[in-house]
């Protein structure tokens, strides 16, 4: 029992420190590409979370929703709708205004890598931070406007976390400075469709609420230590 209490206190302290200043990133704009991709595998260009998956850089995915302002949280998890409107609704966001006609009804992705969607989110950060993105089918990150045909400017590396195992999510993290960024996300091979981007500013004093949580964790740890001394 004592060991359990100590473990709980330590885990609470670690969680408080690790998440004290993390915040969901708000996008500035969004652009969407989608197409049938018969015969593709997880290694095919159209199944990558890269600009080269799109027709803009020679890839097979065609534009279905032109760039439009879209100031909403990048926090999506679609496990049942499998449409572009359903994906955005999973994060409490409306359908982008340029998504009309067939964009409203086409599948977000299909099993067997037979259809895929790539979505580009642009966002702006004003301080140095740790950028983290949880995704299921691949992402890339570029300084806005620096995309090229070889993906060499991908901040995760040219062959970075562009593909994740089907239906398995992962989190990738890197340090970035102030600036405007393009986050590219691929959804392929069927649901779920998961994308969550967060930022944790570096060198920032924790907010009052975070300090309260930290104080509670420390108090719990101190209580355990005092109790243990009395029983020794």
Count the strands? 10
Q: Tell me about the largest β-sheet.
A: 5 strands, antiparallel
Portion of residues within helices: 10-25%
CATH topology grouping of the largest domain: Jelly Rolls
The structural domain count equals 2
Summarize the helix and strand pattern as letters.
HEEEEHEEEEEEH
Structural class: alpha+beta
Model regions low in confidence, pLDDT < 50 over at least 5 residues:
1-19, 205-214, 227-231
End-to-end gap: 15 Å
Question: What's the architecture of the largest domain in CATH terms?
Answer: Sandwich
Give the strand content. 25-35%
Radius of gyration: 21 Å
- Net shape: globular
CATH class of the largest domain: Mainly Beta
Would you tell me the overall average pLDDT? 84
Number of helices: 3
